[in-house]
Amino acid sequence: MQKKKLVSLFFLIIFFNGCDLFNTRDPEQPVQPRSNYKSAVTPEILLENFTNSLSEKNVQNYLNCFSDSSFSGKEYQFIPSAGSSSKYPVLLNGWSKKSEEQFLNNLISHIGKDLPITFTKNNESSSFSGDNSIAYSASYFLVVPRIDGIPKNYEGDLQFYLIRDSREIWSIYLWRDIESSQHDSWSELKGFYSPN
Question: Which of 66, 98, 137, 157 is the S-S candidate for 76 at Cβ 3.0 to 4.6 Å?
Answer without folding.
Answer: 66
